[in-house]
UniProtKB/TrEMBL annotation, chains A, B:
Transmembrane segments: none
Organism: Staphylococcus americanisciuri
Residue span(s) of domain Bacterial purine repressor N-terminal: 4-73
Gene name of the encoded protein: purR
The protein's assembly and partners: Homodimer.
Gene3D superfamilies membership: 3.40.50.2020, Winged helix-like DNA-binding domain superfamily/Winged helix DNA-binding domain
Name this polypeptide is given: Pur operon repressor
Keywords recorded for this protein, A-Z: DNA-binding, Transcription, Transcription regulation
Cross-referenced Pfam families: Pribosyltran, PuR_N
Signal peptide: none
Record-stated family: Belongs to the purine/pyrimidine phosphoribosyltransferase family. PurR subfamily.
CDD domains: PRTases_typeI (cd06223)
Residues covered by the Phosphoribosyltransferase domain: 111-264
InterPro entries assigned to the protein according to its UniProt record, in alphabetical order: PRTase-like, PRTase_dom, Pur/Pyrimidine_PRTase, PuR_N, PurR_Bsub, WH-like_DNA-bd_sf, WH_DNA-bd_sf
UniProt key word Transcription: yes
């Protein structure tokens, strides 16, 4: 079966786009298309030019025997602004405020189209970090963590607040919840994270940062290095935050539970674009 | 800015592949490329031919004012066999068996590359069903549900076994766990699922089917129609299963907890290809 250039380009584009941050050996395409390496390289160049021109990211070419091509997605500032605006508009809907100053976020966390965009935004910020895993806290952080991980081509590690038989042997820590001051427990399966891993922590909501601080302590037990913390929504109300270095998409402020009123403004993520 | 055909094809391919099951108006491409509709249609035809030829699915063209093009991914039987083989090999690793005949699955459920494939496999089976949402049970089903939902372009609805303030007002049911015979509770936020929705239930593991049966009862409270049930692993040991109509990727049998031994065989999913 002979392939025309246009056919090769369709196939290679879909393959690279479907496998972000994965090094694909050029020989894979050479063998599939039974075509000289020089032609395949020309195809790659065409894809590369368009990807760059359209601000979709970059196509890296790694030379040598273990080399190949890799698609590294990237979000442009304009698109990041649009995503943050979309999240803001969604959050400003009525009746989202819950007792205790929490926000109802389950619909956002269950929306794959929105999550893909938010995941790409967060992945873009941490693209240059050397990372081994994305760490999150059950339950609502999971879908967001996967959205980020799928762009960065990394595994997701889920910390639980309860211990289940299905986790196998675990390491647990106790921590003080930043807002309620209650002592809670966090549990992580030993098998899901190698010692000395470099991780990015992703979660849906941060108030005082007690949970994230718990994650930090648990990561210390695994001798892991936390290279970043990123949340969808941070609550600005908190005076003394336990975590200083983090990125957030949006920031919640002026929460008035009685009148179901609050403000949403862009977080500090935008400054990274 | 003028675009060459090859550039348009790269852009359109990446756009359609990144937005599966979404109807994209042709005018979107016409305006972006400032090109006649006839040229754009020719571009679409080239993409369509390659997508079909390579067994990647289909590109549907919907005529009329509200029409456009839609990429419907599809997995071929050969690829489905390879995915099931990959899952089987992973499950056969030592030390996966946990007390009570459960399997350690957290690493699989945290692997985005594997989940993309499994999600595409399950999505292919239910592609022709009219669906409004993917329903799953926290915690481990979430990532798999999102992998399926992202192919079908549907929202994910997460049922919890505990009640959290962040869920807002909820509906709950009690059910009897199929294996332990204990009474447990399931909770679903009222706002996450519209009444009379058509849903596909996705989970990681099924033994007697008590949890899934609980989901069925909870769906009845929402007047929802369950159009299918799909699990990654089913346990064959169970004599009386509460759920009859489901698909599974793999089947676990001959579980010998004492000797840490068990068999993994393909489930009934393959018969759908």
């Amino acid at each position: 079966m002979r392939y025309k250039r246009s056919e090769r380009i369709v196939y290679m584009t879909q393959y690279l786009i479907s496998n972000p941050n994965k090094l694909v050996p050029l020989t894979y395409f050479v063998e599939k298309f039974k075509q000289a390496k020089s032609s395949i390289s020309e195809d790659v160049q065409i894809i590369k030019d368009t990807v760059v021109k359209e601000g979709l990211g970059s196509i890296e070419t790694v030379a040598g025997a273990s080399g190949g091509v890799r698609y590294r997605p990237q979000m442009q500032r304009e698109e990041a602004e649009a995503v943050i605006q979309e999240v803001t508009t969604l959050l400003q809907e009525k009746d989202r405020l819950l007792p205790g100053g929490y926000l109802f976020l389950s619909d956002l966390m269950g929306n794959p189209t929105l999550l893909k965009k938010v995941g790409k935004l967060i992945a873009t910020i941490y693209m240059e970090e050397e990372l081994d895993a994305i760490v999150t806290i059950a339950t609502k952080g999971i879908s967001l963590a996967h959205a980020v991980a799928s762009v960065l081509n990394l595994p997701v590690v889920v910390i639980r607040k309860d211990n289940k038989v299905t986790e196998g042997s675990t390491v647990s820590i106790n921590y003080v919840s930043g807002s309620s001051r209650k002592i809670e427990t966090m549990v992580l399966s030993k098998r899901t994270l190698k010692e000395h891993s470099k991780v990015l922590v992703v979660d849906d909501f941060m108030r005082a940062g007690g949970s994230i601080n718990g994650v930090m302590n648990l990561m210390a037990e695994f001798k892991a290095q936390v290279k970043g913390v990123s949340v969808l929504v941070e609550s600005k109300e908190v005076k003394q935050r336990l975590i200083e270095d983090y990125t957030s998409l949006v920031r919640l402020s002026d929460v008035d539970e009685y009148n179901q009123d609050f403000e949403v403004e862009p977080g500090n993520s935008l400054s990274k674009f």
